Input
Amino acid sequence: MSHGKVRFNTLAVHGAGMPDLTKIRPVSMPIYQSSEFVFNSAEQGAAVMSGQEPGFVYTRLGNPTSQDFEKRMALLEGTDEGISFASGLAAVAAVILTYCRPGDNIISSAPIYGGTFGLFKDLMPKMNIEIIYLPAKDIHNQLSAKANSRTKLVYIETPANPTLDVVDIAETVKAAKKHGLKVVIDNTFATPCLQRPIEMGVDIVLHSATKYICGHGDTMGGVVVASKAEIDQIRPMAFKNLGGSIAPLTGWLMSRGLQTLPLRMERHSQNGMAIARFLEKHPQVEKTCYPGLESCPSHAVASKQMSGGYGGVLAIDIKGGREAGRKFQNNLKLCKLAVSLGSVDTLVTHPASTTHLSYSESDLAALGMTPGFVRIAVGIEDPQDVIEDLDQALSKI
Output
């Protein structure tokens, strides 16, 4: 594009103009680090703004790089379209506020991620939206007794954070459909590599992409995928009203993470199983929670709806309570004390004092999170090195 003969200050702003990108075919999706996009004409601008023609206007409303990530996620989950967000919690908020109004209620499995629980506890009451919690293991049996004319969504998380309880997805969908209810699932722990909720009838799938999708603990994002009809409803709330859009660079990093996701999830699952089997027999461990263990009450359901492994997150109840758990954490050398999961590193946290601080002591006790309950998000290191580190830390209690 030529600007003709212009002066110095104008050249500084406009440079040589945009190159012709139609003949350039990069191997990787470029990062479109631009907040706005130029229209070819006034007519085209009006058509794009009105939705009559596809295109890009303003990165809060959509960006080619983030769209690439959204399309990849939709393909992996087996559905039509996606929307990406600045965080997983922004994704949860957008879905809830799309479908719920004051006076409505949501039936949710319990436990759920502490950030989601905090959103439900702190913000939803201000909007007069009630949350009805049912135990993850039995939500499909209790749902019909709790659903009423004000119920708009069934929200489930499986495997659950941090107890690894498993929701029977197919049975919960069946119970929800009897009442005409949409089912939303947080599929963060399993990813589409291990669990395919859309194929089981779930309407909307969301992720904290910060976790396994990113995979390296270096960026934050969220994503929602669903049919085009559902995404068309969520998009205005997500972008126009809430504005929690993902940044182009973050979208690019998420797409890059998806390229190695199957390999990483295979290794996370292999390591998770090996470490769970070790901890299950350790004399300092009261209980080990991991869906892949035959001793786990949720194993049969998990085996029915997960394939290729059970993920990299497990939890243990350490003998000796909170003080024993504190000593265990402080004696770790290889494993890192950090609140997230899904990274290539093994991360250890005490949910009651970190990720699930929003829960009361009685809430924690009811859900089986004892004072010595510790979550371990297994990385992709050599599993024997992780086992040896866990063993030496437990031996010093």
In short: The CA atoms of residues 204 and 230 lie 8 Å apart.
